[in-house]
């Protein structure tokens, strides 16, 4: 349970509470944001359903009106990122947004708003490991979408090299958002767009060191703008990412980087 909590928090960028859910005929998992009581915000459950299926349900508690109002005030960037996260789920799984919304126009309209995801062909679907795997793959983008609309600043625990002191540091870096990183890698994959190297295949999850490159550098923006993970972000391995930024202030383009790599090999 603690490991799943860590995985969710790492992917979502907000504090999460995870508990067993024995409310139905089959035991599942329930997650909510740790600074909200379950009745005051979104709740996500995952449980076995039928034969070889998991059902993931996001709904709101009975006293979620203040949270919902805050989500309804989300700006264009937050809405676009949240919708993009749900689209990535819908690429591989059956996703339904109630009452009657499409992937491009949904909003958290009120307490009756909910999202259902059906995961099919799950081996040993009643096992705790299978339920935990679905929680990792579906809960992360689902709750990340809600976190984006609520407006959670992404956080991380950092251990500074000062007398061994441990502090929790809040960071506000929307342009470096791990939620946009998740979207970029979901769309483009974990393979370097320049040299083709895949750290995930080479080293496994522990060595998944792929980086996300902004085709228009954040440092050159005159005004903040929404980055489209489809056309504005690409995955690069650390070597290529460092190489592409050796030209300043405007980095090499991906095509120029590929030419550099070809010349270096010839």
UniProtKB/TrEMBL annotation:
The answer to whether keyword Hydrolase applies is yes
Q: Which GO terms describe its molecular function?
A: endonuclease activity
The answer to whether UniProt assigns keyword Zinc to this entry is no
Gene3D superfamilies reported for this sequence = 1.10.30.50
UniProt keyword terms in alphabetical order: Endonuclease, Hydrolase, Nuclease
HNH domain location, by residue? 202-247
User: InterPro entries under this entry?
Assistant: HNH, HNH_nuc
Output this protein's name: HNH endonuclease
